[in-house]
Each structure stands twice: as structure tokens, then as C-alpha cells.
Design brief:
Number of helices: 14
Number of strands: 0
Order of helices and strands: HHHHHHHHHHHHHH
Number of domains: 2
Shape: globular
CATH topology of the largest domain: MetI-like fold
Structural class: mainly alpha
């Protein structure tokens, strides 16, 4: 018979202490792995922020300081005149009204293109997720193929099509083009998001007498806020940064900001004003940067909420 008391029995008796457990060693906060991670993050931050720093510093310097050649030095004479010239008076071709003309052209292109592509993509994703018409899989595959075909392949056929319906070189024409190119990825986003919603919720709405549009507008659309935010970010930044489609389809009166920025920087007449060029570049990229900084958290949440099912 074993007479050695167990640990539990010894702990229950007065005056008998249980055996001490070995203390876990404290890990040092400074480890080689952590040092490597921070070194990589700092290097990556410097790599991406250094060009932005150079652009900002150059845009507030007079040309006399820029000619000295020290691009990393802070300005000795701070000036906002290059920003004013870039916005209001720099030549973007034959017109010298600044890049503000391209800004408002981009706004007129982005707003309807974003709204239309998101609306069509949401309806397509909803129909392919819940109603599943005949040939839905084939239709979805065709839409996905459109997302991977290079834009340059379809430029000439689209030029002929838009010219035949008298929409080439017009604002409605460039809006239609951006809507067409945004449909595949928008359909994919909304289809994956709606596929993560329980099917029982849709069946309950059908039992209550809901039809196609009533279920979509009153049930699905109010639940789609996260993915709508993602879609808005993707479409606004993609359309705003577009160059080739705006150059080909917008026409001379509706050239977006990116095309007019190219006309400013690549001009071959007169003195090359680097401070004005840098200011115009920052003004052009300000809208996408602001969107990413303001709504980046929503973007991550929306992507995660739509990634449950494929």
C-alpha cells in the first residue's frame, strides 16, 4: 500500500506546502526576430515616404533653391506660389487654367461611374448568389474573364462601338466605359459577400412574400454597407488614377486630372518648373490618399466580411 501523500492531500493539510512550481523565464522584449521585423518596417516606411517627402519639400521651394541641387534640404524661403500656379494657372496644353479643370472633369467622371458600376455589380452578385438563373455559372465565368483581359486589347473594339452610337469622346461615353470595366470585379465582390449571408434569411423573406427587388432593396442592400465601402474605395481610386481610358475615350473637353498632369510634366516648351510639377502631382494624388487614410479601416473590415465564402 502506497503511503506517500499526494500533492492534493498535502495541500489540504495545514502546515504542509505544495511543491513550488518552476517559474517561467521571462522572455526578453528585444529578440532578433523582433529586431528584424522593426528593421523591415522602418526600411519600408522610409522607402515609400522618402519620395513623398521630396515632392512636398520641392513643391514649397522657389526655383532658385531647387537649382542648388540639394533635394533633401528643407526650404530656406517657404512659398505656396507653386501650389497656386499648379491649381489655377499652369498650362495643360493650349489652355492655361491650371489643373483645376482636370480635377472637376475627374469628379464628373468618377461619381456616375462609381454609382452605376456598384449598383449593377450589387444586383448581379445578389442574383447570382440567391436566385441562380439558368446558366448562372457560365455568366459568372464570362464576367470574371472580363476582369483579367488587358484593357489595351479592348480599346479599339470599344472605340468602334462608341463611335457607332455617337458616344465617343464624350462624358457619357467615358462613364459607360468605366462602368463596363468595373462590372466584373464589382460582381465578384458582391457575390462573395452575399454568399456569406445565411440562405435561411433569404428563404424566410421569400416565405413572407418578398420578391426580387423587395428583398434586395429592403433586406440585402441595408446589410451591404461594409462591402459597399470597399467597392467605393476600389472604384474611386481606380477610376481617378486611370490614364489610358480617359485619354482615349473622354475627349479633349473631358480629360481627367491624370491626363492633364501628364501634359504639365511632359511639356517641352519653356522652363521646366519642378516645384509646380510636384505640386500638381500631389494635388492629383490627394483624393486617393485621403480616401485610403480616412476609410482604410472600413476597407479591411469589408474585405474580411466578404471573404468567408467564395
Amino acid at each position: 500500500m502506497n503511503t506517500v501523500p499526494s500533492v492534493a492531500q498535502s495541500a489540504g493539510k495545514p502546515g504542509v506546502n505544495p511543491p513550488a512550481r518552476p517559474r517561467a523565464k521571462r522572455r526578453s522584449h528585444f529578440t532578433p526576430a523582433r529586431f528584424g521585423v522593426y528593421a523591415f518596417l522602418i526600411t519600408a516606411a522610409l522607402f515609400f515616404l522618402l519620395p513623398l517627402y521630396v515632392m512636398l519639400v520641392t513643391s514649397v521651394k522657389p526655383m532658385s533653391e531647387i537649382r542648388m541641387g540639394n533635394i533633401l534640404a528643407l526650404p530656406l524661403h517657404f512659398t505656396l506660389a507653386p501650389w497656386h500656379d499648379a491649381w489655377a494657372s499652369v498650362c495643360t496644353g493650349l489652355d492655361c487654367n491650371g489643373i483645376q479643370v482636370g480635377f472637376w472633369n475627374s469628379v464628373r467622371i468618377v461619381v456616375p461611374s462609381t454609382i452605376l458600376s456598384i449598383m449593377i455589380g450589387a444586383v448581379n452578385g445578389y442574383a447570382l448568389s440567391f436566385w441562380r438563373p439558368r446558366g448562372a455559372g457560365l455568366l459568372f465565368a464570362v464576367l470574371l474573364m472580363g476582369a483579367f483581359i488587358p484593357v489595351q486589347v479592348m480599346v479599339y473594339p470599344l472605340v468602334r462601338v462608341l463611335a457607332s452610337v455617337h458616344l465617343f469622346s464624350s462624358l457619357p461615353g467615358i462613364v459607360v466605359i468605366h462602368t463596363i470595366f468595373g462590372m466584373p470585379i464589382m460582381t465578384l465582390l458582391f457575390r462573395n459577400y452575399y454568399a456569406s449571408i445565411p440562405l435561411e434569411l433569404f428563404k424566410a423573406a421569400r416565405i413572407d412574400g418578398g420578391g426580387f427587388w423587395r428583398i434586395f432593396l429592403q433586406l440585402m442592400l441595408p446589410m451591404s454597407t461594409p462591402i459597399i465601402v470597399v467597392a467605393v474605395i476600389m472604384q474611386v481610386t481606380g477610376i481617378w488614377n486611370d490614364f489610358i481610358l480617359g485619354l482615349v475615350f473622354a475627349g479633349t473637353r473631358n480629360l481627367p486630372m491624370t491626363v492633364q498632369l501628364n501634359n504639365i510634366i511632359n511639356t517641352t516648351t519653356g522652363e521646366r518648373l519642378y516645384n509646380v510639377n510636384m505640386a500638381a502631382t500631389i494635388l492629383t494624388s490627394m483624393v486617393p490618399l485621403a480616401i485610403y487614410f480616412i476609410s482604410g479601416r472600413w476597407f479591411v473590415r469589408g474585405i474580411a466580411s466578404g471573404a468567408v465564402k467564395g
